Amino acid sequence: MSGNQKAKAKMEQARGKAKEAAGRAVGDERLTAKGRTEQSKGDARQAKEKAKDTFRH
Fold it and tell me: What is the pTM of this model?
């Protein structure tokens, strides 16, 4: 897995979790949803990179 893309995926996931937690803490449903979306993007990026690695080897 490309180190840069892997790091990007992890950062998106972490940022999303933080936004979701902050949204829940203050009762902001929009921020919570934005956090979930960002986590999903990170998950998708990570899955794409894992698939690339599988076909490379």
Answer: 0.81
Both tokens of 27, joined, read 């009762």
27 φ, ψ (degrees, to nearest 5): 80, 25
Give the span between the Cα atoms of 1 and 5, in whole angstroms: 7
Q: How far apart are CA 9 and CA 52, in angstroms?
A: 14
pLDDT tens, position by position, 1-57? 478 888 999 999 999 999 999 999 999 999 999 999 999 999 999 999 899 888 876
All residues at 6 or more sequence positions from 41 whose CB lies less than 8 Å from its CB, including other chains: 12, 16
